[in-house]
């Protein structure tokens, strides 16, 4: 392989890696959030994870969610793919409709100064 081709491939790989780092992982995109929201045991597990201060109560999916929530709030989910945005919309609308008290606790935990959620209403409609 010529040196020029090798350099071009290395550059393409570096750019691809950099672009991949700018988006959230798709590893959990197929998690059935409707099942989580409708199953009291699963729902309480995720709620405990998201409201807690440590990772002890969290599944790997919950840990990843806790890791990205602050950044997603600050960046208006700019690193989310379309499926993730649709999932966020579905989950938040489901929480607001069926678990309003839990939604209030989550807002207080993740957005205590009301900097983000009110600004994002257009994304939820």
Automatic annotation (TrEMBL):
Family matches, as Pfam families: OS-D
Keyword annotations of the record: Signal
Signal sequence range: 1-20
UniProt-recorded name of the protein: Chemosensory protein
Domain of life according to the entry: Eukaryota
InterPro entries: A10/PebIII, OS_D_A10/PebIII_sf
């Amino acid at each position: 392989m010529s040196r020029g081709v090798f350099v071009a491939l290395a550059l393409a790989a570096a750019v691809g890696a950099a672009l991949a780092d700018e988006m959230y992982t798709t590893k959990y995109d197929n998690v059935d959030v409707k099942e989580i929201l409708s199953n009291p045991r699963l729902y309480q597990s995720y709620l405990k994870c998201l409201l807690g201060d440590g990772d002890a109560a969290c599944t790997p999916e919950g840990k990843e969610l806790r890791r990205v929530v602050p950044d997603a709030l600050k960046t208006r989910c700019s690193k989310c793919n379309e499926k993730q945005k649709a999932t966020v919309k579905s989950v938040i609308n489901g929480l607001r409709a069926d678990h309003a008290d839990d939604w209030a606790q989550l807002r207080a935990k993740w957005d205590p100064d009301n900097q983000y959620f009110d600004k994002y209403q257009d994304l939820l409609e």
